[in-house]
Amino acid sequence: MPHSLFVLLVGAIAALLTALLTARMSLAGSKQFYTAFMAATAFIYVGSALAWGQTSPLVIESAIAVVLFNVALVGQRRSMKFTATAFLLHGLWDLLHSLKGVGAFAGPNFPLLCVAYDWVIAGFVWKLDGNTTKATRQAAGL
Known about the structure:
With 142 residues, the chain is mostly helical. It has one domain (4-132). Helix content is 83%, strand content 0%. It has helices at 4-22, 27-42, 44-52, 55-77, 80-100, 110-139. The longest helix has 30 residues, at 110-139. It is globular. The N and C termini lie far apart (54 Å).
């Protein structure tokens, strides 16, 4: 099993690479990408519960996924800070998987990698909202 710091580093680097790729997109494209990506992220543990045939975790994973997906959808329409918050919350959920074994089993390293990924991406998405607000003010002539 890889060292925990290495796993965290891989997650953070993957997030940085994602942010670099999306930086080339339009603001609207970035918003759509991160909302869609949060939808996929929210449901990843649902897939784990299904793969392992875990009924009880399937219920809680599905409920959490639906909540996080809807928070991200609000972000698409109102403020990307909602989507960033969904990533932060998912990172907390990843941490509970990693430290406490809560929810569906996703392997020993995947939840920890996702903690770093989700929290780094949350920072980029949070800043993306600042760009959205700035662009909105410029469009309004303020």
